[in-house]
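Run log // design_07
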């Protein structure tokens, strides 16, 4: 039988997951008018901060929030839409690098107002102090989850 703390932890985890899913839905809806997903928007954001030579798929995955998504397919869609270019690295033809195009930068600029409006809407019920506390608590959950995962892996 679960303890009171285990029940409270499960409730908190489920609430965080539901909130994350709702936020993903809002971001996806904001991105839909230009035919991309929230994950693809995140990839564009990552590439917009990348060095001029671009990033490999592995480097993109390392920076994504959702690391279990089909990144190759997401990037393929961005390439087809003209938001990203894909080229082999000059120093090693086995490495494929991705760079954001000017069209991709314009897509970010086009989406930012809608996403900022959604962010304002989601945050309107919270004070800055509450948002800071929420951020700290979520980071503590993440640290605890990482620690639990590492413990499980070391016990195998």
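design_07 sequence
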């Amino acid at each position: 039988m679960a303890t009171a703390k285990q029940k409270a932890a499960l409730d908190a985890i489920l609430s965080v997951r539901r909130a994350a899913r709702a936020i993903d839905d809002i971001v996806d809806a904001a991105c839909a008018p230009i035919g991309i997903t929230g994950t693809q928007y995140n990839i564009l954001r990552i590439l917009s901060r990348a060095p001029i030579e671009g990033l490999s798929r592995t480097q993109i995955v390392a920076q994504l929030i959702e690391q279990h998504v089909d990144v190759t397919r997401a990037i393929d869609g961005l390439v087809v839409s003209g938001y990203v270019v894909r080229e082999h690295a000059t120093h090693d033809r086995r490495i494929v690098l991705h760079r954001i195009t000017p069209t991709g930068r314009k897509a970010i600029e086009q989406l930012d107002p809608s996403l900022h409006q959604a962010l304002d809407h989601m945050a309107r019920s919270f004070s800055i102090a509450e948002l800071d506390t929420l951020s700290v608590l979520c980071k503590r959950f993440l640290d605890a989850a990482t620690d639990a995962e590492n413990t499980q892996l070391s016990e195998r």
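The mean pLDDT is 92.
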